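Let us work through a complete example step by step.
Step 1: write down the sequence.
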Amino acid sequence: MTKREAVIETLNHRGHELIPYHLDFTQQALEQLIAHTGDPKIEEKLGAYLNYIQYWGWPTEQPDNPGHFKDEFGVVWNRTGADRDIGVVDQPQIEDLEDYHYEFPQFDEKRLRAEYEALVANKGDRFTMAGFGFCMFERSWSLMGMENVLMSMVACPDELDDLFDRICDYYMPMLDIALEYDIDGVYFGDDWGQQHGLIMGPEHWRHFIKPRMARLYDKVKSKGKFVMQHSCGDCHEIFPDLIEIGLDCYQTFQPEVYDIAKMKEMYGDKLSFWGGVSTQQCLPYATPEAVKAETIRVMKTLRKDGGLIIAPTHALAFDVPPENILAMVDVFQHQEKYL
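Step 2: predict the structure and record it as tokens.
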């Protein structure tokens, strides 16, 4: 069975011998792992099952402002602090939602197609996805600041509805292009959760976010492809909504946020889970042997009838020791020994 076939089996809730696995790295974590192993090709040798790229804008470093990257939306991302992969927004583009003249950019279709052509050409036997990050809520707060978005949900909902429609309309033709290629699914990234519950609450999510995500999901499902959704934090309140609009797989599945056994029991016949090994607690702080034990526990808890892509719960960050990464991967790669 190929890696692609194994992922499709698990997304269709059919159990099989090997659980698909995946790893994503921040730049710092990958550099540390390469230094630890002395192997510049270590990432590809780890054998992840998923193959995807994620569009969230193409930030370009500003020559007159080192460490600051400007994307095509006009947003400047400051990467001089701890976050060298994304950064923090320096200056909102929309100051007053009730009186603004912001125009969305024309995306670079030639560049987008070149990325998808490279993605497909290098997929091997892996499950392949086009990805869209900073998709709805994150795109809104990158343009106008999170506090302003949250206040606008109450203070000027009509204007915010219009902004969310414009964001969704921006992504729809990009999604059309992605679906022309030989991919297996589409991955959407948009953080809605915090440690307990949704940032904006379930009712505001259902009003502002759900109908736009439903439009995007519908387009993917109309082509017979799988839908994957990333959100950090606690999104359990809207799992039924996500299932209703067509979600196949939810990522990331944090054990310090969810009772993973309970969520599997409640939703595991309709929703697959991607994640499970904590980047918040276990991987940064445990010993390698404890990492192995926790990885085994999570896999045994969630493996029944498929529905699991085992993985760290987020891109591996600089605070995860390379020894712990290798201990986790040892379990991933030698499941017959540990499970």
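Step 3: interpret the result. The domain at 3-338 is CATH 3.20.20.210 (TIM Barrel).
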